[in-house]
Amino acid sequence: MCPPPSAVIFDLDGTLVQTREASWKVFAAINDAHGLGIDTAEKFFGLFADNFFASLREVCGTTERADRVVGEFMSALDEHYAPMMVPGLADVVKQMVPQSRLAVLSSNTTAVIRRVLRSNHLEYCFAHVFGGDVEPDKGRGIERFLSDAAVGSGRLCTAYYDEPTGDTRSAPNATANPREVALITDTVGDVEAAVASGIRAVGVAWGMHTEEQLLAAGAEFVAIWPQELLSYLYGRVDDACSCSVAVVETATAQQDRVVRNRRLRRLRGIGNARVPAGAPQSPPPKPPAPARDAQRTTTLDPVLADAIARTIR
Known about the structure:
One of its GO terms (cellular component) is cytosol. This is HAD family hydrolase. Keywords: Hydrolase. Pfam families: HAD_2 (PF13419). By secondary structure, this protein is α/β, with parallel strands linked by helices. The chain has two domains: 177 residues, Rossmann fold, CATH 3.40.50.1000; 61 residues. 41% of the residues lie in helices and 9% in strands. It contains twelve helices and eight strands. The strands form two sheets. Strands 5-4-1-6-7-8 form a six-stranded parallel beta sheet, sandwiched between helices. Strand 7, helix 9 and strand 8 form a beta-alpha-beta unit. Helix 7 packs across helix 8. It starts with 6 loop residues before the first strand and ends with a helix. About 10% of the residues have low confidence.
């Protein structure tokens, strides 16, 4: 199993939300209006085998027609598209927040992503969003994330971003370590874009494409249930790693670990108190001596205690 990722990029449609029926209903009207010949849901889903916009433009033929179709489809999504969240994924996202910086990379519009995340109270769990109206090419979106956003701060489901201290601030023009970035998606095209960009690709079995298709495209793992993402990404680390990218230890990766550990302490309320500069340091009080017949107690490591609490919750 690979080391836990410092950053996780989620696809939206088919990954975070149930999209097959909802997106097809919106597109069907566009197909009828323009006579594109994509008159079944299966044909529509087939457009996602590669970059969706590139596939749609190819079907349209001319640039003028493609611009009109894409524009109308995006407008229809903004107005009518209201998919349901995949059951269980909201909880999974919140469990990931202390561990990794989260982002959304989607062919859908920023307005739709905003509506979906806000309606599920997840808008402040994601630090970055690349909608199709911002960056229609998934490969280019991954590159932009690696070169800028992934090196920055994350969020702990609050409006403000983490503020790195001077000793953990990334150097100008620093890039994220691809070894520590994972894309979670339901489509072959996204998996191929992730592999080409050198980051990890993890598939989900409840979206557009099957487990077999995603593995054949290069996904290192395909989750059958949302909770399996937590087990796979943050479980026990083995010496043998199934990732196709090489292990690279960089200064940025070391800084990421420092920031991640600090965020974990903040979330658990540890280490928040600060002593002013020059203030006398008083030794910690000694614990009272236990009574002669008092029951023996055991102090758990905070990380172990947190893991046990999650298990029995």
